[in-house]
Amino acid sequence: MDLSDKIPGMTDAALDNLRVNAERLGQAGSPSQRTAATAILPAIEAEQTTRKAAKRERSAEASRAAGVKRRASKKEAATAAT
Q1: Please, are residues 44 and 15 in contact by the beta-carbon 8 Å criterion?
Q2: Mean pLDDT of 50-79
Q3: Model confidence pLDDT, tens digit, residues 33-44
């Protein structure tokens, strides 16, 4: 199994750590480490971008759900007041 195959299953913290290490090795590693770091960085960046987009979507969905709940509560309160 290639390291890039493990990326989707990594925690956010592990993925951040991998990125930091890959960036460091890309600058100061041996030639083979630089090559490996350069090869893995796009996969790390793509996974982080996907996760950020999913997090934004979950947040937006939660906001929409909270708005619906607030409107329903206001409507119930207005109906009960009459």
Answers
A1: yes
A2: 87
A3: 999 999 999 999
The backbone torsions φ and ψ at residue 29, rounded to the nearest 5 degrees and listed phi first, read -85, 180
The single-letter code of the amino acid at 45 is E
Are 47 and 39 a contacting pair, CB within 8 Å? no
Orientation angle between helical segments 31-81 and 12-28, nearest 10 degrees = 150
DSSP string, 25-45: HHHHS-HHHHHHHHHHHHHHH
- Domain boundary assignment for the chain: 3-81
Residue with tokens 């913290």: 13
Confidence (pTM): 0.74
Question: Minimal CA–CA distance to 15: which of 51, 55, 39?
Answer: 51
Q: Which residues fall within 8 angstroms of residue 6, CB to CB, at 6 or more apart?
A: none
Q: Is the per-residue pLDDT at 57 higher than 90?
A: yes
* Amino acid code (one letter) for 26: G
